[in-house]
Amino acid sequence: MELTGKKELLKHLPDRPKFILKIYLLQVLLITIVTVIVLFLIDLLPRFLPSFGWLTSLEPYIPLIGSFFSILGGLTIVHVVWRKRDKLIAKDKRTAFQKSVKYTFTGIPLAMGGIIHGFLPVSWLASRIFSFSVPQNSLTSLFETSIGRIIASAVGNPNYKDMIPRIIFSILFLILAWVNMLRSVFVFGIDNSAMLYVYYPEESKIVDNKIYSIVRHPLYVSVYLLSLSILISNFSIFSIGIITIFTACFSYHIFGIEEKELIVRFGDGYREYRKTTPALIIHPKNWGKFLKFLIGRDF
């Protein structure tokens, strides 16, 4: 089965080979992996260079700083799609999207790498890969420890363990995130996912799917489900901080950039739609409908 919207997308990449989507997919994968690896190595700089006292002082905050710049940098690159739109269209509308799509497939994986960074059990990996037994700064251990264990120790229960339930719920939300993402791409099309109609709104088609009656941005729900998975997997000060950074940056992207575009495109109708339908949080009464969407059933 051919990916929905593939023909429409390739039509607007006139000077690219037909296999360009595979190249873009590989690019996304590589940038995400490299970003996560680089952030992990930056996290370990105080352990590689223990003689630099200022690095030791910064150690507890380095993961948050790294994710912040990765997420903010990635979304800033994606915003170029909007900033250069009018200029590129004025120069040559036929190739305008073709020249901007590189920002989408570079910025998104860079931001995603910063988010996935929250999954990393830094000290655990450091001890097994580089034999670093302990962090240079004791505050780092506190930031990496799950909130549940911190509270349990504070009330006199040092044997408290919450790893298994955290892993179970983290995997559950991770599965929901991937299923929703794949389902959304196939239902709404790779052309919509790649923001093709930011450049060619006159070619956009209304996708009549009931999921839009319960949430305005079904594809972006995947990203927030992934965030929940990351948050639960560690449930530490690190993971809470990284997800807070992501939520602030990505929410600005949605409400400060994309929704402004949709209001311009659809006018008062979209303003009224915003009043009745949440952007990302699915009301508990609609969870059953959301699950039906995930498995391809009507509701």
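(ticket continues) Second input and output from the same batch:
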Amino acid sequence: MANGAAAAAGAGAPAQKKLKLKRKQQGGIPLFRWLTQNVFWELFIIACIIANAVILGYDAHHGGESPYSAQIEQWNMYFLYIFTAELILEFLAQGPKRYFSRGWNWFDMFVVAISYFSVSSLSALRTLRVIRIFRLISAVPQMRRVVEALFGALPGIMASFAILAVVFYIAAVMGTTLFHNDPGFRDLGASALSLFQLSQFDGWGETVTRLQAQNPYAWVFILGFTLVAVFAVLNLFIGVIVEAVQAAPQEEIKEELDELEQDVEGIAEAQEDAADVQRRVLEELRALRAEVAALRGASPPTPPSPVG
């Protein structure tokens, strides 16, 4: 019996170690983890961020002439304390290793730290209070996905920007060479600024009419630049961003599937460990039965009782 219990305990040890390891990876205190992952807590934080944004906008609009300046300053401090308490609770809920491994937590700490600097009476530092509104991005999952998608598409965005810069430089050199007598194309800087205005269709007709008076074929240059820079390269730039944003939910679904796959693997391993424990217990029981049967067969026969 002792051997069977020892075997069962030895076989069950890996499953217990895996369970403890999984709990350790989750980290944090379960009570605070339940609190911070509660939908009511998330809605409360979002409401505080929006309310703080409204107060900051009202204060910026009315300035020091507002009769509620003292109350606004007091509420700003209240919101700052709430956001600081949120950081502490998130730290206790996630644990040090998991908390500092997430970039959004670093972003929240940076925003709250900047907010403490904005408590100063200097107007230049007080303007930093509006940075707190950026916390709305980290508080709303959909907004986080968009920002993460933009960072993921950064190589494609930079490549599109490089192509656009090359097109603008070539067009600026050509425009300066062809229309150097025009004030809008007297040098590379003025040409680049005029081309940027053309790409936004700002004064497009006026620029064409003005250049047509100097060169009857100016429309060829303007039309060619508009087609290449605006309808081709800028649309490519937008397409890269749209593709990245559309791919963000797929990446999130993939991560969730990976987590589910890990959970299923853990369950399967636990079932294998349990089956191994059951097999060893059955083997020990069979061995004990064989030993009991052997002991019974080797015992001497009982002598008959004397007849009275």
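Agent notes: Residues 218-298 form the longest helix (81 residues). The radius of gyration is 36 Å. Closing as not reproducible unless the customer responds.
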